[in-house]
Amino acid sequence: MVESVVSARGLNLVFETGDGPVQALSDVNLEIGSGEFVSFIGPSGCGKTTFLRVVADLEQPTGGAVTVNGMSPEAARKARAYGYVFQAAGLYPWRTIGGNVALPLEIMGYSRAERAERVARVLELVELGGFAGKFPWQLSGGMQQRASIARALAFDADILLMDEPFGALDEIVRDRLNEELLALWARTGKTTLFVTHSIPEAVYLSTKIVVMSPRPGRIRDVIDSPLPKERPLEIRDTPEFIAVAHRVREGLRAGHD
Ligand SMILES: Nc1ncnc2c1ncn2[C@@H]1O[C@H](COP(=O)(O)OP(=O)(O)OP(=O)(O)O)[C@@H](O)[C@H]1O
Questions:
Q1: Which of 43, 124, 128, 221 is buried most deeply by CB count within 10 Å?
Q2: How many angstroms is it from 37 CA to the middle of ligand 1?
Q3: CA dist., res. 38 & res. 28, Å (int)
């Protein structure tokens, strides 16, 4: 049997707060295979970020089990199994773009030559080849987010965790970055977990869409996309695309009843 890259079985997570327990995740079961692009969509507070944080070993489940590459999240973190892209680009303003991308490599003790080679390669991948020497404030919001994707790619982890990376961008920039991300995913084959509030974004990007319901966060529906791997933006006008979007919307609506 092929081992899942991410496997969640009976996952529960309860936060103890001053106002009593908050159940963020309830009995989440999910298998993610190698090279899949999986979007998590659901209303605010349904546990999407919490799920990503469990995978990244930033939160401890209170029940059930998660494995990442067949290991505990802690072992996977130590093996540098993933890169993490946050909602805000989170670049250090006093470092150049190249310096920001190199930072995790510096912390990990890569040599200067190795850092330079990797920074050049990942900036090229996100089409920021000529921008290594610029500072974050010299780049648009979309370019900054591309730089933060480059930073997550720099140490060649085979899993990419992305928490609403394009949420703050206008729709035209977002469309372009969606196209670029899809091309990048096709080129690199990284298993990608992607949080979004946007139905078209989830349907356009994903091989699998996980629809979640509000607290306690449960999986309402898991949709294996019938769309082909090649996806021009115009695919969003096809009946196949509209049918998947409809099913996602139905799942979100059912979660509210
Ligand atoms: N550290 C924490 N302590 C207490 N409660 C928390 C903590 N982190 C998250 N929560 C609660 O757990 C629930 C799930 O939060 P989470 O951030 O995972 O939701 P989300 O689906 O990512 O939301 P959004 O779409 O708004 O980002 C929310 O009710 C949130 O208030």
A1: 128
A2: 23
A3: 15
- 33 contacts 189 by C-beta, under 8 angstroms: no
Structure tokens at 167: 């949420």
Check: CB of residue 57 under 8 Å from CB of residue 74: yes
Torsion of CA 216, 161, 58, 221, to 10 degrees: 20
Domain borders along the chain are 6-81+157-256, 90-156
Q: Best of 23, 40, 50 to mutate for ligand 1, by most ligand atoms within 8 A of CB?
A: 50
Amino acid letter for position 247 = R
Residue nearest to atom 16 of ligand 1 (CA): 47
- ipTM associated with this complex: 0.94
At 52, list the tokens: 């990503």
Sign of CA pseudo-dihedral 15, 19, 21, 22: negative
Region of 85 please: left (phi>0), alpha (psi -120 to 50) or beta.
beta
Q: Could you tell me which CATH class the domain 6-81+157-256 is placed in? A: alpha beta
Question: How far away, in angstroms, is 101 Cα from ligand 1 center?
Answer: 28
Cα of 55 from ligand 1 centre, angstroms: 15
